[in-house]
Amino acid sequence: MPTQAELAARLDRLPMTKHIWYLVTLISLGGCFELYDLFLTAYIAPGLAKAGYFTPESLGPLNILGPFGVAGIGTFVFSLFAGLFVGAIFLGHVADNYGRRTVFTFSLIWYSITTAIMAFQSSGFGVDLWRFIAGIGIGVELVTIDTYVAELVPATHRGRAFAYNQFFQFLAVPIMAFIAFLLVPHAPFGFDGWRWVVLIGSAGAIVIWFIRLGLPESPRWLARHNRLAEAERVTASIERAVARDVGGALPAAGQPVEHETGEGTFAEIWQPPYDRRAIVLSVFNFFQTFGYYGFAAWVPTLLISKGITITTSLLYSFIIAIANPVGPLLGTLVADKMERKWQVCGGAIGIAVFGMLFANATHAVLLIVLGVLVTLCNNWMSYSFHNYQSELFPTRIRSRAVGFVYSWSRLSAALSGLIVAYLLNLGGVIAVFGFIAFSMVIVVISIGGFGPRTKGLALEAISHA
User: What is the pTM of this model?
Assistant: First the structure.
């Protein structure tokens, strides 16, 4: 029976054929609806406000935030990311215990059911409560997607695979933005447009669940749990499919990297070299989200604050949203040629520069162009760091560690809903982007100054570095 290290070496020597792209596509299909749900915050918020869901009476207990000027869309954004934080930090480890495929499927079912319930709420408090509960499932899903892709894809193609994964997922954003543009200002069949937007995402996720039943479990995870016979069957099946794709023999496996040791506990995150990586990534994640969701979750609202009407702001936001899948698609050209940490830093610098220009722009065309550039940089940083953080920890604690460091981004994203709302009331769009620029400086210092290199290395080699 092959060892865990031998199975990993066999996976890493495979060429990136259509079968492996097919597996990445199936994983990405599930991610589409996670992104749909994450980004609908920005696009249905104007509809919720129009329907009176952000009034003190509708928000109920959440109106305690009223004196701070954030008891509106800020509570809606906060509820989602508070749920994501709980899911990532408290349940991120479950994929290490129960498998990537099992948790991957369960979390999608969670999302579909809880989001559908949210669509039928009749108060701002009810919407925010179910937004929080749905966020818990989404938080687990996003962590599992990263670990799943990292473990299935050969070492020399992980960058392209993550860029493609995010390209595919971000296709959902312009689709959702277009649906919101058509539905949110209206009430088809007497049913509020924002409810239709939510239900469409929930129903679509169920369809994708059936499609993903063909996904195999991660061989690395199976081997780690001493299910070597199953790991061998999955690996051999992948090898046969890849051999059919290339029409010949596969290259010889490289030298196996040292077998993993350890119990897979939370305490191992705080042992060298993982302790320094966990601290660096926690700092990075806390600040990167202020740039990412500070813009992405607030585009229509930021435009409205510039005096643009709700319908026009949704149109502009849709045009900007079209850039979301383009960023990762362009990224496939450099994803495996440029060191991952410098891609993260490049995206952060672009967000800061183009964001400040966006804050000072007034012309419609310039606003759209700068919005697109901020979006492209957001997505460059996004696919790079999702790849990067999944590479820095061993299989036994990968999901647990990624869940922990990623949870800080969920916490800061929850806070961003409150902070951005406060800054928008205090100093307008310029104040918002000034804070975003400061956050991107912290991102560059943390990753550029202290992050290790990973390009082209086997996961096991990075783990032992």
Answer: 0.86
For residue 142, give the nearest of 77, 206, 74, 89 by alpha carbon: 89
Q: Which residue shows structure tokens 């543009």? A: 181
Query: In Å, how far are 17, 110, 224, 461, 465 from 258, measured between CA atoms?
Result: 27, 38, 13, 8, 11
Query: Under DSSP, is residue 119 helix (H, G, I), strand (E, B) or coil?
Result: coil
Residue with tokens 């964001």: 355
Q: What is the DSSP letter of 447?
A: I
CA proximity to 415, closest of 69, 59, 126, 82: 82
Contacts of 9 (CB under 8 A, 6+ apart): 253, 254, 255, 256, 257, 458
Three-state SS at 122: coil
| C-beta separation of 374 from 295 below 8 A | yes
The single-letter code of the amino acid at 132 is: F
Q: What percent of the chain has pLDDT over 90?
A: 49
- Find the DSSP H helices in 392-448: 398-443
- The beta-carbon contacts of 245-248 under 8 Å, at least 24 apart in sequence, are 245/15, 245/17, 245/18, 245/19, 246/15, 246/17
In tens, the pLDDT along 117-136 reads 999 999 989 999 999 999 99
Residue ranges and CATH numbers for the domains of the chain are 4-248+268-463 (1.20.1250.20)
Task: Supply 167's token pair.
Answer: 């390209």
| 189-133-116 Cα angle (round to 5) | 20
If DSSP codes are grouped into helix, strand and coil, which group holds residue 255? coil
Q: Which two tokens stand for residue 170?
A: 């971000």
CA dist., res. 443 & res. 295, Å (int)? 16
Instruction: Write phi, then psi, for 74 (nearest 5 degrees).
Output: -60, -40
Q: Cα(413)–Cα(268) distance, rounded to whole angstroms?
A: 27
CA gap 417, 411 in Å, rounded? 10
The encoded tokens of residue 403 equal: 């869940």
210: Cβ contacts below 8 Å, ≥ 6 apart: none
- Model confidence pLDDT, tens digit, residues 97-109: 999 998 988 888 8
Q: How far is 239 from 286, CA to CA, in rounded Å?
A: 40
